[in-house]
Amino acid sequence: MDPIRPRTPSPAHELLAEPQPDRVQPQPTADRGGSPPAGSPLDGLPARRTMSRTRLPSPPAPLPAFSAGSFRDLLRQFDPSLLDTSLFDSMSAFGAPHTEAASGEGDEVQSGLRAADDPQATVQVAVTAARPPRAKPAPRRRAAHTSDASPAGQVDLCTLGYSQQQQEKIKLKARSTVAQHHEALIGHGFTRAQIVALSQHPAALGTVAVKYQVMIAALPEATHEDIVGVGKQWSGARALEALLTVSGELRGPPLQLDTGQLLKIAKRGGVTAVEAVHAWRNALTGAPLNLTPDQVVAIASNIGGKQALETVQLLLPVLCEQHGLTPDQVVAIASNGGGKQALETVQRLLPVLCKDHGLTPAQVVAIANHDGGKQALETVQRLLPVLCKDHGLTPAQVVAIASNGGGKQALETVEQLLPVLCKDHGLTPDQVVAIANHDGGKPALETVQRLLPVLCQELGLTPDQVVAIASNIGGKQALETVQRLLPVLCEQHGLTPDQVVAIASNDGGKQALETVQRLLPVLCEQHGLTPDQVVAIASNGGGKQALETVQRLLPVLC
């Protein structure tokens, strides 16, 4: 608050300077506190440790100079944000008879007037006068509480055909928006399940409901699922609107993007990536970068796509000319979540990792070319000497572990658990590396440590079989599913433990095992397959999808 500066004497100051025989001088109380008069707006406040001010008795005759309007004129000389002059609007004159409440307000005003020549006192009194009564927030809290329970939280979507499960997926604050736009979205051909998905970003409900026809005109190949895929993202509504604005120019030279590419950028990179591609399309495709449309899309279609595009413009010439990378390698590094940070870390650490640790530029690129590339590179710099000298790994093994999503966490877990798994569970370092050398290496290693004794002692598997199951993407989930379903598949469906292991020892082993449990009876009884044939189909990457496709197409093909 600006300090109150002395002003040129005004009529109000001159009036204050005149003798006022009716003024009662403030008297200190025993505890140096004061109490507001009964019925005052300040009634109920704790006592302030200030000098008590006795209420002025009513003068025998009105004093026209102290009208409510005069008070407002005087108070405007102070900071208007500190005083609310509206309370004087109901006072006909200061000297007129008052109610008890009005007299309490008059005390505060008199305090402000007496402090006119004392800026410090004025600030104190003015702030006190502006302080709202403490008894008032309670109604506001009650009102807020009431609004929480209505109307958005109480919208019953059953009447619109949404199942209880679907309603549970819709946030309370989005239910009224779903109800508001339900009819329009259904009219545009969206299913209730798609509307539920779109409600993850409620703003998109209105955008799609109102502008669907325009979207289809701008993106004629887009399906309902495509639009939902973009709209449900955190900036989905803005990303869809950005596509409407710039899709025409992005379809033309120099990029000539198709609908699928536009939707991919909007879904994965968001509104900022769409806008960045539009703004920088000429710079990205022209010299010296000379990127292809596919490369631009690959960089932009990630979280942080805008920042990655910006960093490519800055660092591609440097990384190629000074560090010997190719444009394709730079694009590959940038085409992941966190591409900006990965490129900057490659620029900083590539010389160190090559000169001090003996890695090749291709190995550095392999480590950086994943989500979390920055963290993986920094962890390789820190742990490569430890893992090689203390644990007997080779640099190539360290690079292999780091060259996956979650490479940082996998390296740290290998450092921690390799001695335990080798000494306590009889695994070799090569087996530990095989488990860690996948996306999700950290949870796979931890699950092997936890379940290997159970799977071997209680279910009869060998350590090699446990390692085979764990050494795939999703190894953690596959091990847990084997523990749960191996007894069921063997006892109820006649499979052997070796067959269960064969199904689980692939990417997606968990899903394949669950699908075998569900479809083996159907495929054998209704379609004439043998259990061995079902196992053979399931014992590959993508076994779940293969089994479901056989169930659907075998009658058609035969």
Automatic annotation (TrEMBL):
Gene3D superfamilies listed in its UniProt record: 6.10.140.500
Predominant subcellular localization, coarse grouping: host cell
Subcellular location: Host nucleus; Secreted
Cell membrane found in the keyword field: no
Compositional bias of kind Basic residues: 133-144
InterPro entries, per database record: TAL_effector_rpt
UniProt-recorded name of the protein: Avirulence protein
